[in-house]
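Ticket #4471: structure export looks truncated?
Reporter: QA, pipeline team
Priority: medium

Steps to reproduce: submit the single chain below to the structure queue and open the exported record.
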Amino acid sequence: MLYKLSSMFMLICLIIGCTTQSTDEGGDSIFPVPPVEPEERTIPSEPVVIQPQPEPQPEPIVDKPEPEPVAPHDGARDLVAPKLVESTIKSGATGIDVNINAVTLTFDEKIAKSDIKIIDAHNQNLRWKRIIDDKNVVLTALADARKLVLDRQYSIVGSVEDAEGNQRVVFITFTTGVNELGDDIEDREDDIAPRFIRTTVNNGDKDVNPDTDHFIFTFDEEIGATRLNIRIEGALNHLGWTHLIRGKEIVLHKLDRGGSLRAEQTYVIQLAWADKAGNWDPGGVIKFTTRVKE
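Actual output as written to the record:
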């Protein structure tokens, strides 16, 4: 019996010793220890504040430059007016032959339009024909044009335009020669029509008295002949007034059987005149309106 108790005691000691040895040597424990779960921690934080979003600002309005106009043709736009490069009569020339029957002005580009003419010292148009030929403007004395006269001053005036509308003004003055003997020409032939000075009714006048029975036209020299009539605007028949020449004046007056002026009516006077040498001026029209009759 004692022997059995000793054997059991030794067996228990042997088991306890083996268990302790395994633990000391760093091996696995016979009774594994469950792992310890880490304790969850909450990190306190600042409260979240929602920041307001800035409102979108409109873009500033900036004036943009106007686009350059597009030229109607290929290439750069022409902004330069035609330049006079040559003329058969130079400005300031003297002793010009009165028998010349053409004057040519040449420019540096093609001419599209021109109103150039020759005038005398009294601003009277010589009525030379104007011809546009590429870069040239030619003034030609046709049969009905007035000729140049000895020892007179004339001007070539007007303007030209190119196809783009660029305008160049032309002003050339010249003087014709004297007679071959060099004498002063006191009795030279008169070839200048009388110059219109004034009238008792002007073109565009309004409120003309409908009781008016005559009009007077005054010139700078004596009148030799005239063509003159008065009619209602748009009508074909004249009023039947007559005229008389009184030295440097032409008088248009109503006859007893002629038509009287009416109130609030527009009338047209057609007038042309000539001096005693037969120099005619084609004249023109004078349009006026009568006022309300009182």
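Status: closed, not a bug. The export was complete when the record was re-opened. Leaving a note from the reviewer for reference: Residues 22-31, 181-187 have pLDDT under 50 and may be disordered.
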